[in-house]
Q: What sequence folds into this?
């Protein structure tokens, strides 16, 4: 599994977290043959060919939302991420 995560301030005391997950098939035989997947195969478009896994992303962002006390349900972005807004906690 691979993931891409972004965090940015949303408002005073809040942070917006965007997440995209995907699974890369890393065939063991390719490694034994000294031919690992190309970097492009392990990246989401436009740089790569990997496919976004919406179900996996939804489950992971759901876990993050619960643990980080999200202020609302996850929302989709235009670039295959799901976004939550959470309180900014400085320790």
A:
């Amino acid at each position: 599994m691979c993931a891409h995560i972004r965090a940015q301030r949303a408002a005073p005391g809040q942070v917006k977290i965007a997440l995209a997950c995907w699974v890369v098939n890393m065939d063991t035989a390719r490694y034994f043959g000294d031919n690992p997947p190309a970097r492009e195969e392990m990246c989401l478009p436009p740089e790569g060919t990997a496919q976004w896994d919406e179900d996996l992303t939804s489950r992971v962002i759901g876990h993050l939302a619960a643990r980080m006390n999200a202020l609302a349900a996850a929302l989709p972005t235009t670039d295959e991420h799901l976004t939550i807004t959470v309180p900014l906690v400085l320790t």
